[in-house]
Specification:
single chain; 108 residues; mainly beta; four-stranded antiparallel β-sheet; three-stranded mixed β-sheet; 2 helices; 7 strands
Amino acid sequence: MLDTPAERRLARFRPDRPTPSGLAVEPHIVVGVVQPTGNFKLDRWIVALGPEFAGCAVTVFILDHHDHKTVIIFHRHARIHEFTLDPTRRRQTGRRAALRQRPTLDKS
């Protein structure tokens, strides 16, 4: 039984199930804490999530497709950001550009 969104998402992207393009997509998972400035470091990239997420634990799924990478960021069981990684930019599009209204979250 799949209880969390993360478990359901992982079940969708099983390595043995081919994607429509014929290539298998295996997610890379990173768990970390958002910096006090509201940024999250992801390898050599910086993702601006906003100061409302400072100190929050996040889980990041990186789906490596043949021509691009999709990044999905969760806080607890809520998906807070999803974007396509731009390898030419060190700082990635933040949540503020996508959402103008900031949610209030508990930082535990």
